[in-house]
Every structure is written in structure tokens, then in C-alpha cells.
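Continuing the batch. This is chain 6 of the set; chains 1 through 5 are on the previous pages. Same settings as before, nothing changed between runs. Recording input and output for traceability.
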Amino acid sequence: MLNQPIKPPEDEIKPGKDLKSYIESRLELFSISIAEQVASAASASIQKLVGVLFLSVGAIFLWIALGFFLGDLLNSQALGFLLAALPLVILGFVLYKGSSRGLEEKIQAEIIQKVTLQIRDSITESEEEAKPSAKVHPKQNQL
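Output for chain 6:
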């Protein structure tokens, strides 16, 4: 009886197995979290793209209306459209020749900041949900 190995109860926690399942669960949670953040960023981008598209179409109609209005004022439709298009041509030239690299870097930095903030928030939320509650094993109370 004294030389027999002591067998742990079968309902006790096995650290190696639990650690493996915990790591697998955390990896699965992380991959789901990343997929959720990518989907969120994609949907926000699509929403903004559609908004910009509608604003652009509205701006085009406004510029056409401005061309007609200036044409009526000047009694020359061609001159009205020329004057309406002139600010757009100047702005386009300035943006084309200007430092587009700075604008590109600014947009990239903003996108990266938003995505990392969303991922960080998601990770902290998942860590708070994954914190084990203060459960006491029944055998520990018998001391």
C-alpha cells in the first residue's frame, strides 16, 4: 500500500491539457478578433467610398449649374463653363504637382491608427472576458 503511486482524482485539472486548450482558444479568439476588425474596417471604407461618390456626383451637378449660371450672366455658355472649370483645373494642377507623398502618408497613418486602436480595444475586451473568475477548487477548502 505504501509503495503504490498515488493517482490524482480524475476530476482534477491537468495543467498541460488545460494550457494547450487555453492557448488554442486564445489563438482562435485572436483570429476571430482580427477578422472582425478587418471586416469592420472594410465596411467603414465602403461606406465612406459610397458617401464620397454621392458627394462627388452632387459637386459635379453643382459645377454644371454654376457653369450655366455664369453663362447666363455673361451671355456666353462657353465662357460660363470655362470660368466654372478654371478653379477645378487650378486645384487639380496644384494637387498633381504638389507633395502628394505627404498626403498619402497622412492617410496611411490615419488608417493604421484606426485599425490598431480597434484591435487594441478588441484585445483588451477579450482579455477582460477571458479572465478566470475566483473559483476555489473543492480540495483546497479542506485544509
